[in-house]
Design brief:
Pfam families: Fer2. Helix content is about 10%, strand content about 30%. By secondary structure, the protein is mostly beta strands. The structure holds FE2/S2 (inorganic) cluster.
Length: about 100
């Protein structure tokens, strides 16, 4: 089990658990932290987050919504991201 700390925005300093099998998006929402999402399939980009620290694995996602120049800066899609260590992330709050 890994811990994920949100470092800015409405949910600044919130911490939630993620076991590495479920996505960041699902783990956050299960624990009451609402972050934006649309498709849950890596195609809309609404769940884009930036990992400030830690290791993670990306599932398949569209290069149209997550181009290479953003990938190298550690942007990722929460619906397709699985922690491989504790993480610190920047996340936009959502109400969906
Ligand atoms: S919810 Fe659409 S890309 Fe993650």
């Amino acid at each position: 089990m890994f811990t994920v700390q949100i470092v800015d925005g409405q949910w600044k300093d919130a911490v939630f658990a993620c076991d590495g099998q479920e996505s960041l998006l699902d783990a956050a929402r299960k624990q009451g932290i609402k972050i934006s999402f649309g498709c849950r399939g890596g195609g809309c980009g609404m769940c884009k987050v930036k990992v400030q620290a830690g290791r993670f694995e990306r599932g398949v996602s569209s290069k149209a919504v997550l181009p290479d120049e953003e990938r190298v800066l550690n942007y990722t899609l929460a619906c397709k991201t699985y922690p491989r260590s504790n993480l610190c992330v920047s996340m936009e709050a959502g109400d969906t």
